[in-house]
Amino acid sequence: MEITINTLTWDEFAAQVSALVPGEECTPGRALRDLPAYKRIRVTRWLADFFVEPTPLAVVEQFATLGAAHEWLQAALAAGEVPREGPATEAGSGTSTRVRLRPILDHDIVPLYLASFDPANAAQWRYRGRTLPMDEFVSTLFGGVIAQFMVEMVDTGEPVGLVAAYDENRSGLNCKLAFLRCGPRVHGDAAAVFEGLALFISYLFDNFPFRKLFAEVPAYNMSLFADDFADHEGVLKEFLFHKGEFVDLHYVSIARDRWAELATQTGW
User: Fold this and answer.
1) Nearest Cα to 164, choosing from 176, 152, 181?
2) Which residues contact 110 (CB under 8 A, 6 or more apart)?
3) What does the pLDDT average to over 138-162?
4) Which sequence spans correspond to the domains of the chain?
5) pLDDT, tens only, 207-240
6) CA atoms within 13 Å, Cβ hemisphere of 145
7) 97-108 pLDDT tens trace
8) Is the CB of residue 175 less than 8 Å from the CB of residue 210?
9) For 99-266, which CATH class?
10) Per-residue DSSP letter, 23
11) What confidence score (pLDDT) does residue 35 get?
């Protein structure tokens, strides 16, 4: 929807939000935190990139409701802020207004090692709670991997996580995805690794003839994968042991044609 004057009515705002989060109720009182994680990321990223001059995500994350976000946009438009035309990011570029992908460097090894074996989340990563000495960790870091990158913040250059593709199936033209958060959490970097994962998905579809990308998702992380982002392929009941309980492991997939539509809409 093209904006030609310095105003944005609630109906215009709600129409644009509805296009980003189909099927969700868009009312002024709707809490952003109540949206599924992936849909919340789409809305906050759209808000942060609404103007030619990007808005820090830390500012956008302060909006409790859609109504508060609309009021902020109205005030910014009235103050002369210029709306951006088209996506802020060129699909396949490996960078957005907030994060970029880059190769793993020597100084990334220690943060990755600490994140992989942090007792708070070690059971959620590839080693499933096992611990390895540093040299063995380094020797296995690229085992079975097709491609992987660090995700770093554009404004600070700080790494926030790792995205990886592994287990290539050449006959079926697919592979699996994984991501790992690392380093201290800083206000304004919420969902940064997931945004890096979105850039990485475009990279994989641009550079490999994959038909689908798969992810193995424990039940406690399924809120990240909304229906309009990934297809649910199946579930292994009580397949993993996590925090004293057996939990389901879900298989989700991202198809090339569906991703082409999303990348066009978002610039990922």
Assistant:
1) 176
2) none
3) 92
4) 10-78, 99-266
5) 999 999 999 988 888 877 766 678 899 999 999 8
6) 16
7) 889 999 999 999
8) yes
9) alpha beta
10) T
11) 85
Cβ pair 84, 50 in contact under 8 A: yes
Q: Beta partners for 112?
A: none
CB 73 within 8 A of CB 145: no
Q: Between helices 37-48 and 192-207, what is the axis angle to 10°?
A: 90
Q: Which residues contact 95 (CB under 8 A, 6 or more apart)?
A: 89, 101, 154, 199
Torsion of Cα atoms, 80 then 265 then 232 then 174, to 10°: -130
Exposure class string for 95-133: b at 16+ Cβ within 10 A, else e = ebbbbbbeebeeebeebbbebbbeeeebebbeeeeeeee
Residue among 146, 143, 150, 108 at smallest CA distance from 126? 143
Distances (CA, A) of 55 to 28, 33, 59, 72, 87: 21, 19, 7, 11, 14
Structure confidence by residue, pLDDT tens digits, 159-198:
999 999 999 999 999 999 999 998 887 766 778 898 899 9
